[in-house]
Design goal:
The chain has about 210 residues and is an alpha/beta fold. It has a single domain, classed as 3-Layer(aba) Sandwich (Glutaredoxin), CATH 3.40.30.10. Helix content is about 45%, strand content about 15%. It has 7 helices and 5 strands, in the order ααβαβαβαββαα. It has a 5-stranded mixed sheet with strand order 1-3-2-4-5, with helices on both faces.
Length: about 210
C-alpha cells in the first residue's frame, strides 16, 4: 500500500511480517499452584516495590529532561493525502534551490507505551531544532510530523513500533522500526535518546541539554 506519493515508500519496508501463528490452547486440568509462604510473599512485595520505584525514577527523569527542552511543533497528519502534500512541498522547495528539508515522521499509536514516550520526546527534539534554527546554528532544516500508524499502513505489525520514517528533500531516506528496543524499552525514551537516534541516522538535530 502506498505511503506518501513517491514510488519508493515506507509502506514497502513497514509491511506487516505476515499472519501471526495461532496461540496454543492448553487442554485438560491445570495443576493447583503452590500456596506461597509468608517469606515468598514478602519477597514478591519487595520486587513489586522495586519495580514501581524504578518506574517512578524513570518518569521523573523523563519529566526533568522534557522540562529542560523547549516544546516544539510536531505537525499532525490526518491522512496519507496530507503526508503526500507535505512531501510534495518538501520536494518543491528543494527543486527551487532551498536546502533539502529533513522530515521526521513518527508512525504513532496512542495505545503503545513506547510510541507515546517517543512522541513526547520528539516534541522536545523539535523544540531544540527550532531554537537552533532561530540562532542560525541548525545545519539543515528539520520538520517533525506524526501520523497514526494504522492510518499510514493498515495492519502494520505492532512489533515494528515505535516506527519513524525519515525523508530528505521529500525523498525517502530511511525507516527506523522497533526503535529503542521495542515497546517496553522505548517507554523510557527521553529527548536525549531520541535525539541520539536521529543523529545516528543522519538527521542534523542538536544534542539534548
Amino acid at each position: 500500500m502506498a505511503y506518501g506519493v513517491e514510488s519508493a515508500t515506507p509502506s514497502q519496508s513497514f509491511a506487516a511480517s505476515g499472519a501471526a501463528a495461532a496461540d496454543d490452547v492448553v487442554r485438560g486440568f491445570t495443576p493447583r499452584a503452590a500456596t506461597p509462604t509468608g517469606e515468598e510473599e514478602a519477597e514478591e512485595e519487595d520486587d513489586d516495590d522495586d519495580a514501581l520505584a524504578a518506574i517512578r525514577r524513570r518518569r521523573l527523569a523523563q519529566m526533568r529532561q522534557a522540562a529542560a527542552a523547549p516544546a516544539g511543533r510536531v505537525g499532525a497528519l490526518a491522512s496519507k493525502a496530507d503526508m503526500g502534500e507535505a512531501l510534495e512541498g518538501d520536494r518543491r522547495d528543494a527543486s527551487e534551490g532551498m536546502a533539502p528539508r529533513w522530515r521526521v515522521v513518527h508512525l504513532a499509536e496512542g495505545w503503545h507505551a513506547g510510541s507515546r514516550a517517543v512522541q513526547a520526546a520528539l516534541v522536545g527534539v523539535a523544540g531544540l531544532c527550532e531554537a537552533a534554527s532561530a540562532a542560525g546554528a541548525l545545519p539543515a532544516p528539520v520538520a517533525f510530523s506524526s501520523i497514526a500508524a494504522e492510518t499510514a499502513i493498515p495492519g502494520l505489525d505492532p512489533d515494528a513500533l515505535p516506527a519513524i520514517a525519515l525523508y530528505r528533500g521529500g525523498r525517502n531516506a530511511d525507516q527506523l522500526l522497533g526503535v529503542l528496543g521495542g515497546e517496553e524499552a522505548a517507554s523510557a525514551a527521553t529527548v536525549e535518546s531520541v535525539a541520539g537516534l536521529l543523529w545516528g541516522a543522519g538527521v542534523p538535530v542538536p544534542a539534548a541539554p
